[in-house]
Write a structure and sequence with these properties.
heterodimer, A: about 280 residues, mainly alpha, MetI-like fold, 11 helices, about 75% helix, B: about 250 residues, alpha/beta, 10 helices, globular
């Protein structure tokens, strides 16, 4: 009897140590990636790298300011389109749980979530680039907005589902119209959850390259016109890393580091907001 | 002034095809407390929810018959206007979590976009909180979130929120079922004090509570109004056998 117990305790210990070991193995590559990006990237980053335009091959002091501004433009354009539509759709879904139309929207959202991002790029190409005969920041923004939408819709719906129905009734019973109840009572209560969704959406699109290849296209110069092609950090990394020039490889590492910091920072802020 | 403030005529209520209220005819007297009691599922909550037209918010829910509030058939009024004249307090305290105590009390005005001058706003809040017997406890912390209060205080805050709109009628849907005995007795005292200014309809499954706070009592069973009369008579010599059985705890 006693031996049996020791045997079980031993098995328990083996199980727990296996779990811990495998966890450790799984985070090793992640930490190595961060370490590698940091080691190679930090040395590339300096004042000129952040604030200058790309320099011709062979010249010193080139920067990626156009890609940083381009990425910010794309994120802002995508957010302006995706945030209002996403939040309103999320409200609709949580308010009409059983309607057939809501069911259709829900499965569509799931499908869009699974569609490879390059296909969304082709769609934006067909919708925006072809009619306007021009690669543009707007087209890139449309592609990214479609990617962002499902994340915002899902998180808004799930957040609102957690809010007790009594709050809505409390407001309606005071004679407050439905739309004011939603905007002034329900949305403020779910605000941190909705912001979390928006930040996750931004983190999802900030590092996308594929949908931008034939929409935002890339640009060696600074451009603030949304109807003209813009550069972005992931696009720049893609072009520079595959180039034959040593200096461009260094710059690509630097840009990778910036992008990693940006996305990690967003995730960190998301955690802070969600904790509230 | 007419003694009856609110009455129903042949009121039936449905959830899709299920009939949950069957030809209810009842008259509520001004500035009295009327308790509505009965076992679970007897339609007592549905009855008061038809009165401020919250019933119809449920998909598939509808009513037939008439509800008259001070000469007006409420079906002809916009639900929003009905709800501003008939306040409601729910089973579980539900102050707005993003708002302070002050904002919670004034929420009926704020959320409806009614702008009051600052003095009048302060006065309304003070009056409502005094009316709900909460003023002394919270007058120094009006800017704090309403959710910091205890359960009983939160429920009185919800009563203050309803009172602030100065409705002639207030509906209480089992207002003490989520509260401890001490908070319950403070709410009951409050109800008795409030009837000077408002007409109160209180749903309760606690017969002792009905006896303590109400002037009139209605007993409902399976969607029908079985008996209605003064509380005193109902608890001493009820007309119906069902009422007596319920009051003596034979079922329910």
């Amino acid at each position: 009897m006693k031996e049996r117990t020791y045997y079980r305790i031993a098995r328990d210990k083996i199980f727990i140590s296996t779990v811990v070991l495998l966890c450790a193995i799984s985070i090793v590559p992640l930490l190595l990636i961060l370490y590698y990006i940091a080691i190679n990237g930090i040395s590339a980053i300096n004042w000129e790298f952040l604030f200058n335009l790309p320099a011709p091959v062979g010249e010193e002091g080139g920067g990626v300011s156009n890609a940083i501004i381009g990425t910010l433009m794309l994120v802002v354009i995508a957010s302006i389109m995706a945030v209002p539509i996403g939040i309103l759709t999320g409200i609709y879904l949580s308010e009409n749980k059983d309607s057939r139309f809501a069911g259709m929207i829900r499965s569509t959202v799931e499908v869009i979530m699974g569609v490879p991002s390059i296909i969304l790029g082709i769609i934006a190409y067909a919708w925006v680039v072809l009619p306007m005969r021009q690669f543009s920041a707007l087209a890139g923004g449309v592609a990214l907005a479609i990617m962002m939408l499902p994340v915002i819709i899902r998180s808004t719906e799930e957040t609102l589902n957690l809010i007790p129905n009594e709050l809505k009734e409390a407001s309606l019973a005071l004679g407050v119209p439905y739309y004011r109840t939603m905007i002034k009572v329900i949305l403020p209560v779910g605000l941190s959850g909705i912001i979390t969704g928006i930040l996750l959406g931004v983190a999802r699109i900030a590092g996308e390259t594929a949908p931008l290849l034939f929409t935002a296209f890339g640009n060696q110069f600074m451009n603030l016109n949304i109807f003209k092609p813009v550069n972005s950090l992931p696009l720049m990394i893609y072009y520079y890393a595959t180039s034959p020039y040593e200096q461009w490889h260094v710059d690509a590492w630097g840009a990778s580091f910036l992008l990693a910091i940006f996305v990690l920072g967003l995730n960190f802020i998301t955690k802070l907001v969600a904790r509230r | 002034m007419n003694k009856t403030i609110l009455k129903t005529e042949n009121l039936c209520a449905y959830f899709t095809d299920e009939k949950v209220l069957k030809d209810v005819n009842i008259q509520f007297e001004r500035n009295k407390v009327t308790a509505i009691m009965g076992p679970s599922g007897c339609g007592k909550t549905t009855l008061i929810r038809t009165i401020n037209r919250m019933h119809e918010l449920v998909p598939g829910a509808r009513i037939t018959g008439r509800i008259i509030l001070e000469e007006d058939n409420i079906a002809t009024l916009h639900p929003i206007l009905v709800r501003r004249r008939i306040g409601m307090v729910f089973q579980r305290p539900n102050p707005f979590p993003t708002m302070s105590i002050f904002e919670n009390v004034i929420a009926g005005y704020k959320l409806n976009g009614i702008h009051l001058p600052k003095d009048e706003m302060n006065q309304t809040v003070e009056e409502a909180l005094k009316g709900a017997a909460l003023w002394d406890e919270v007058k120094d912390v009006l800017h704090r979130k309403g959710t910091f209060l205890s359960g009983g205080q939160q429920q009185r805050l919800c009563i203050a929120r309803a009172l602030a709109m100065r409705p002639p009628v207030i509906l209480l849907d089992e207002p003490t079922s989520a509260l401890d005995p001490k908070a319950t007795s403070s709410i009951e005292e409050l109800i008795v004090e409030l009837k000077d200014t408002v007409t109160i309809l209180i749903v309760t499954h606690n017969t002792a509570q009905a006896a303590r706070v109400s002037d009139f009592t209605a007993f409902m069973y399976l969607g029908e109004l079985i008996e209605f009369g003064t509380t005193q008579k109902m608890f001493t010599v009820p007309d119906h056998k069902k009422t007596e059985e319920y009051l003596t705890g034979k079922f329910g």
